[in-house]
Design goal:
This protein is mainly α. Helices cover 71% and strands 0% of the residues. The chain folds into 2 domains: 105 residues, no CATH class; 93 residues. Helix 6 runs antiparallel to helix 7. The radius of gyration is 36 Å and the shape is elongated.
Length: 224
């Protein structure tokens, strides 16, 4: 795709065909969309436009600013007669010249954005940084949820162990046969409850390894 941004292209149609073939549906949709606009390709390739070469070379052809200017020029005079299109083109040139004169004379730019490569690079870095912060924040939330589940699971395991231990102690001091039989049945339930709590806790301990590091502000709880 980058090769399409040029003054002249050796194999324009072949390149579009290659984009369709290698890009699949996305590549095919991209080409169809750019063809349907009728102004995109003339805005990035000089030989497909009617812009004089001197005007085309007036700035960095890879910048978004100059590309947008090329596109603006090509849009002037749409659905107009030949004379109407010519007058619109002259008005466009006049407005651009007035903008340049005001900028040089008074230092008033047409936009708060300079269009400089450094500005674009800054915004790209800022956008990338914000994206990374969101990813790290999501990972921190996952760690916090994991820590809460681990602590609750440990609490349930300790309660189950205490309940089983208390039932064992009660059975140890019981002398009546009927009461002992009942306590033995209750003790088996306590054992099963303790086993379920232990399995849940062990599973959470294994899940710890799948968590990413996050921002470092929230630490993963170590195995108790």
């Amino acid at each position: 795709m980058r090769s399409l941004v040029c003054i002249e292209h050796d194999n324009w149609d072949g390149t579009l065909l290659k984009i369709r073939e290698m890009g699949g549906k996305a590549g095919n949709d991209w080409v169809n969309d750019k063809i349907s606009t009728k102004f995109f390709f003339p805005g990035i390739c000089w030989e497909r436009s009617f812009i004089p070469i001197d005007i085309w070379n007036a700035g960095d052809p890879n910048s978004n600013l100059i590309e947008s200017v090329h596109r603006d020029v090509n849009r002037e005079g749409v659905h107009c007669t030949l004379l109407g299109g010519l007058k619109k083109g002259q008005l466009f040139d006049s407005m651009k010249m007035k903008t340049l004169v005001i900028s040089e004379t008074y230092g008033i730019n047409p936009s708060y954005k300079t269009g400089h490569v450094s500005e674009n690079a800054y915004h790209n870095l800022k956008r990338k940084s914000n994206s990374q912060h969101r990813v790290l924040a999501d990972e921190d939330q996952k760690i916090e949820r994991y820590n809460d589940k681990l602590l609750k699971s440990l609490e349930n395991l300790v309660k189950a162990e205490d309940a089983r231990s208390a039932k064992e102690s009660e059975l140890l001091h019981e002398t009546q046969p009927e009461r002992r039989n009942k306590l033995e049945g209750e003790l088996q339930k306590k054992f099963r409850g303790e086993e379920r709590a232990r399995k849940t806790f062990e599973k959470l301990r294994l899940d710890r390894e799948s968590l990413k590091g996050g921002s470092g502000k929230v630490a993963k709880l170590d195995h108790p």
